[in-house]
Amino acid sequence: MTEITKLTIAEARAKLKEKEFSSLELTNAYLDAIDAANPTLNAYVAVTHDKARAMAEAADKRLAAGEGGALEGIPLGVKDLFATEGVHTQAGSHILDGFEPRYESTVTANLWADGAVMLGKLNMDEFAMGSSNETSYYGPVTNPWRAKNDNKALVPGGSSGGSAAAVASWLCAGATATDTGGSIRQPAAFTGTVGIKPTYGRCSRWGTVAFASSLDQAGPIARDVRDAAILLKSMASSDPKDTTSVTQDVPDYEAALGQSVKGLKIGIPREYRMDGMPEEIEKLWQQGIAWMEDAGAEIVDISLPHTKYALPAYYIVAPAEASSNLARYDGVRYGLRVPGKDIIDMYEKTRAAGFGREVKRRVMIGTYVLSAGYYDAYYVQAQKVRTLIKKDFEDVFAAGVDAILTPATPSAAFGIADEDMASDPVKMYLNDIFTVTVNMAGLPGIAVPGGLDANGLPLGLQLIGRPFDEEMLFRTAHVIEQAAGRFEPAKWW
Amino acid sequence: MSVDIATVKHVARLARIAVDDADAERMTGELNAILGFVEQLNEVDVSGVEPMTSVIPLEMKKRQDAVTDGGKAADIVANAPATEENFFLVPKVVE
What we know:
Chain A is of the alpha/beta class. Chain A has helices at 9-17, 23-41, 49-64, 106-113, 161-168, 185-191, 225-235, 279-294, 310-325, 343-354, 357-370, 375-398, 419-423, 425-429, 436-441, 470-484, and strands spanning 44-47, 75-79, 117-122, 174-179, 194-197, 217-222, 265-269, 298-302, 403-407, 445-452, 458-465.
């Protein structure tokens, strides 16, 4: 019965309806797989066995009565960034020690309302700050993918590394994730899974631990494009509790799959051809272009002139917002407290002990760029550059481009404790070079597997769309998926 | 622009993060690497460009000015490290 964990959400949903197996059987199969694999992969930071079984039993009752929502009985993993009532929620951080919120995030509440089952909370970079899942207080996640003839442990990417690894290693049918600079799309690319960051405002941020509020968006990581469409439909909503949540209706994303791309204009931005980009990434990109052309799309060269400034602008805007958002962790209202000789000393000791190195680094950068005398030079300048980055995209879309095709990452997955990355924070930041522009402009972006590199590791392609045109991304990504096929790691764990 | 150890210690104070000399020295190098990287933004001509305030044009949502929630003191203090009778406990701040 363990093979039922390999079904996609669409397949499992159909079989649950036909009573081929129950949600409790499916849930137990996943829980067994997690218990066996987690000591090796470290994808979960908390497994909610009892809650999962209770939710599955409730789903089975609804299914037996011929009722049930779009995800009835489907077991999912939840990134540790989403508040889940009465359940471990620590954003991968030590400073939120023991935090069990008394409320549920809107995104997860939407999933449970549609009948989904929670398996547990997934590992992540601390406060979603990282591209390798190595900044987690709970230790790194191991990528289920390994290079050919090589046992070296690789990172699953980050910050949603637990989500991507769990989906790729059949430890959940799908997972929630979040993306501030590439945290859904980069781990999806590193694990051969599909990840979509929707348009800013499409998913409510209520109950999601805040990193950089003007950039953060929730989205799913799934085994294929259809599952990503099914999950996003359920996660997205219009939420009065989040003022940046949009009021427009959520379309039926699944309906976009299978629609022809004939005559669509696919833009290829010349600025994404970076100096020193590995040949394999270029080859993957050309392959993606060829697939779109074969399917009848028109390929157009485009220019996004401010691309190279997106990452430096991000490393001002995101830390600035983070330094403000993370001010709430003061040892008073929740989590860790380290005693001090007075209240300031208590704050300082608590934050020194509770935050990891990367988080401290970003809070420090943010505090510096917002401090007296530097605000205009750094923060205002970065926000002006951001306006220009967004305008680059607006110009291209106004000229009739329907979607933009780029590589998702500048490389395949790298090793855990890679010395090159550890020695220079900026090198790690460059992982997000192709994804971060999308957050800066608030646009939707999807990462879809395009193939394997010479070492047998997955590589992803990215499609970028107009605001709220996620349907275009599902439609075009599905064409890539049909041509490229799907990719699974050989089980070794 | 670059920072020295004294500036790093000042920023750490503003950020309420305790740092010792070794931390401050290491952070000085890291912060300067990042500040060096973001320096390139100065090349961009931003004359006449408005700073971004919202990526998606949104009208601020408004609702009736009415009490819609409350009575949750026990929930609010439930996760606090130190409380007494639904109050947060902190070290003495007034002599």
